Amino acid sequence: MFEKSDKRRLYSLIEQYLSGQINGWKFCNEYYYSYSLEIKSDDLTDIEQSAFFELDKISNRYTDIQEDLVKNPDTYYNEEQLKQKLIETKEKLRGQSPI
Fold first, then answer.
1. Which terminal CB of the chain, N or C, has fewer other CB atoms within 10 Å?
2. Integer Cα distance of 81 and 28 in angstroms
3. Could you tell me which residues are beta bridge partners of residue 62?
4. Rounded to an integer, what distance in angstroms lies between the CA atom of residue 54 and that of residue 21?
5. pLDDT at residue number 97
């Protein structure tokens, strides 16, 4: 795995989630530690900044707790919504070099 400050870690986390190697909670926690706390925006291209920012909005409000989803449907995102956003993000980043 890459260092938390390395943008390649974000690409790797997306691949790990989509291939079933990590679950939603693991993805969101690791994504937060890298994207929000370690990676400098200057290290990202404009496309990466936009795509990762949009993904951050979903990952910060992800839950798999059914009670939260029922009580606050407009507040939280579920597993399917997270997965869909990850697929969209991967598509947006196609052609970007994580190096």
1. C
2. 13
3. 77
4. 23
5. 76
